[in-house]
Amino acid sequence: MKKHYYIIFGVILFIAAVAVGFYVNMGGFAKSTSIVTNSGKQYMVAQHYKGKLKDKAFATSFATAADLIQKGPYKKGVLAAYYLNDPDKNDGVVDAYVGVLLVDSIGGTLPTNFESFTIPARKVIQTKIKAHFSVASKIYTDVKTYAKAHKLNIKSVEVLEVYPSEKEFELETPLLK
After folding, report:
1. How far apart are CA 81 and CA 31, in angstroms?
2. Structural fold of domain 33-174
3. Which of 50, 138, 156, 169 has the fewest CB neighbours in a 10 Å radius?
């Protein structure tokens, strides 16, 4: 009978070790860094999305934008989302643009259902973390902690999330004037 307990304990220990290893590999224990900076004017080609945060259509808009970078006309672009509201304050409803952040101005024909716009230069808290976005949700708390420590007032709207790579996540949170 004791042998069964050892086997069960061993299996549980193995599963826990695999889970922790996966979390570490994804950057789950990574620390973020924040600075106050002036972001330059930025250009974006994106689809407008308004709906539930957990809706499949929201995830699909990210996949569509990623395809424009990998296969399409915006190979020098970076996957990004520009939030017009704070979903936490709106019952999980997101109002955002999901698409491609570009270094240069936008030219050429836009993909179907995409629009282009400019994000004006502004003063932001730029926070970066080397972690997959799925384990980097603490970055929002880190921004609030940084703002409070430096006596800065932040806006909870017009926040820009940038995904330079699968294991990098950046957040530009605008400051109130």
Report:
1. 22
2. Multidrug-efflux Transporter 1 Regulator Bmrr; Chain A (3.20.80)
3. 50
What is the token pair recorded at 98? 């999901």
pTM exceeds 0.85 for this model: no
What are the residues whose beta carbons fall under 8 Å from the beta carbon of 97, sequence distance 6 or more? 44, 46, 47, 48, 49, 81, 82, 84, 115, 117
DSSP structure string for 26-43? TTTTPPPEEEEEEE--EE
Identity of the amino acid at 66? A
| Sheet of 159-165, strand order | 33-39, 122-129, 168-174, 159-165, 78-83, 93-102, 42-52, 115-119
Q: Indicate the domain borders of the chain.
A: 1-30, 33-174
